[in-house]
Amino acid sequence: RVAFLLPGIPLSLTAQSPEAIRKSRLTLGGMLLRRRLELRLNQTQAAQAMRVDLRSLRYWEADHRPPGDRFYPAIIGFLGYEPWPEAQTLAERLVAERRRQGLSANRAALVIGVDEEVLRRWESGEWRPSKLTTKRLAAFVGGPEG
What we know:
Helices cover 56% and strands 7% of the residues. With 146 residues, the protein is mainly alpha-helical. β1 and β2 form a beta hairpin. It is elongated.
């Protein structure tokens, strides 16, 4: 907290230090902000590095809007890691791999060869794939079905 006294105008400004910001936010927006500060980039430079619109980066850093799936490869490259916990279930592995590749659910469903609604239900954990589709899914997520 810093107080400035201007002639006739009492003014008090408060701001979090970069260190406090780094420690306090574990959201995707916080991760992006922390990385940008570590690299000593302003938002324009960070947006250019990720090849995204400046307004999008501002929304993401403020956690006002999540990024679209197509932006995750750039985000992963910028952060240097995947911004989600290690996938444990098939549903989590499907979402993680789809984002890694920057695919929408629609596009991923086409790649896998299933209907988009089926993929969404697998990703939500509502449905489990049949034995017939398990091999296709294993090829997509890079491992055995679990």
